[in-house]
Design brief:
4 copies of one chain form a homotetramer. Chain A has about 220 residues and is α/β, with parallel strands linked by helices. Chain A is built from 10 helices and 8 strands.
């Protein structure tokens, strides 16, 4: 699985986000690879209506329907078309009890959860709440040019090992600095089930070429 | 002006939100009254596409396009159709320097800002950042059955007076517990330029009747 | 172990805090029971100088010495006399990555950590970071009149079981609503290693009598 | 007035903090200059007991006595010896309604408030809450080598002008990068009533010499 986090990049906003979403859909179909798009809340409905690959939210707040203003409700992003959501991204850290609550609420809506962690210990801790995926991303490598596969291969193996201890079935995605097919293939060799990426695609001159290159890494 | 805050009420989510938006639009046209709808981020585009009255966001984060995950970007909600946004709602308080930054960023996108304050002093303080509207709502009355017009009329006159001191032109909206035409007419008599409401409409069995009643208050 | 959290109760502030600390010390010596006092930062030095039982901080921030203003540094509370600290109390929740960092920093200073959790899952998750103690307190019972031993006995057994899974050696304290010797003895019967309490002692007319009563529960 | 913020620098912790406090006291007496020390909470009592110049807290939370764990209560730091406190330091920003509440609570305890602001608009806004002093510090200059007097002289004059508009009597302190007597004298020429400094003294090889140098600037 390749999860592309659109963040709030200019290229991940509105019409431009839709363009990249369509490119990702095309590649996903042609190459028969599972690509998931995590887009801004206000773009979920438009993009989910336009493409047939899964659209995720980037965050959901640990709230039930009720008197809350300006927060993100699982039920609402679900109805807009989100099939899942990131939780606890390093740019959106949550209190531990909120992570538990958010995962519970998101699951009740029938959505998938990709819970993010900066290291193996936090990944292990979050596994207790049984997210559908764990994504491990060392914050110091995010949006950088050196991939986690190269800079911290032991983080990947260690995370997988710790996650196995708690719950053998939770697949581990890795992220941060993933930009080449080698980054992807190395991550899979180390036991990862997929990659999480953002700047590598969103800041690329040619996102299609970039996605195609990354997919090569999946095929090794 | 009547600003209806949909919050994350079940009735303010997805298709149900769209229904109330259409009712509000109908009443706005028939009665020639300015009604603004503050809806959840994931519903902005659908509702802005469907109705011809102004749609606002409920919150915007003080961020520029870039590497941020799961936050609300002014540029994105603008492109989705939001003509303005609430800022610093009592259910979404911000640090003071973030209020300044958010108002600046939202204005650069050509959107209106309705900055919320719980009391007259905070209203005066926020006026320094020149929002388009100040909305004063005592948190203890929000979602309750007693309106600010009745429980704290002096809050309205005092806020208007303090806002005048800083910037004579900023219109003051009042909210919290507004449910009857008398609540509305009393607020206007005290100098308010409009009302902010939520539960009165969103939790009503008959939102159309409720909005019509409130509009009666505007006509006095 | 009995850990008395002084919180910011009036009775737990300054000279009044010192009085209760001396009472606790006297009872601890007379009855040969381990009593620990978690006091406000500005009172740590005075109380640690005055009594011979352990004094803890109520919170430590995940910071190293440096350019931080108004935050609580482990090195400083350690030098003031704190032998340990609460972490992630329900009235002071932390982001998950901050819990990990705070526990690491506090341990480096040679202090004990009592990490708080509202439920068994969060207790299990926090155990990954190897605190010296886990304290489980359901927030809805804190400062109330029904103890966790009575209202949620299964929380205690379940927490102990989950903590065992991760790390067999971490003792579990229980808290919330603990006010009688029966609350204490029941907690120990269920497998707890001690209790955490606050209002039961701090709001008592006669703290000495209250502490003596609770200690009876330890002796069963 | 010279306010020295000890922050959580290693040199501003425990015994080392006490040493610098005594140096500052000595210089204050010899040169007859008003020096105020903002120290870590756990050091307030020890330092206030040891020196005869004013000791302030670095932060106070907007709470009353009661069920709060690990937060800073005005009543407690007051009893420990703090005569005032910083509020809303750039390293400890607060929500706008918390600033209002904290200033009110701190004043009720008879303590002085030095409210910090990053720019002239925020300084003006905070003046509405009537702190005893406004301290303006552009965050980008904090802990740097270029002083606000040199890099942004207009910030000082502008802040003073805006503060005058709201409340003519609130003295303005300036901070960030203040390291030489020229930085101090320039600030006073521009209308400031004093300076706020930290790294210039706390990271100095010879804090006494550094404080003496800065005092020269006051005498111009």
């Amino acid at each position: 699985m390749i999860l592309i986090n659109f963040k709030t990049y200019e290229s991940g906003t509105g019409r431009k986000a839709l363009e990249i979403a369509k490119i990702a859909e095309k590649v996903s179909k042609e190459k028969d690879v599972n690509i998931v798009l995590a887009v801004q809340a206000a773009d979920i409905r438009m993009i989910a209506d336009a493409v047939s690959i899964p659209v995720y939210a980037q965050h959901v707040d640990p709230i039930e329907p009720g008197s809350h203003t300006g927060w993100s409700l699982a039920k609402d992003v679900r109805e807009a078309g989100a099939e899942g959501t990131l939780i606890n991204h390093s740019e959106h850290r949550m209190e531990i009890s909120q992570i538990e609550k958010a995962i519970d609420i998101v699951k009740e809506e029938g959505m998938k959860t990709v819970a993010c962690a900066p290291d193996a210990e936090i990944a292990e801790a979050i596994c207790v709440f049984e997210p559908d995926f764990i994504a491990v991303e060392p914050p110091e490598l995010i949006a950088g040019n050196v991939s986690v596969s190269k800079a911290k291969p032991e983080l990947i193996t260690e995370t997988i090992e710790m996650v196995r201890k708690v719950d053998g079935d939770i697949p581990v995605l890795v992220g941060a600095g993933v930009k080449s097919k080698k980054d992807v293939s190395r991550a899979l060799e180390l036991g990862a089930s997929g990659v999480l990426l953002a700047s590598g695609v969103m800041k690329s001159e040619n996102p299609e070429k970039e996605i195609l290159e990354l997919i090569e890494g999946l095929k090794v």
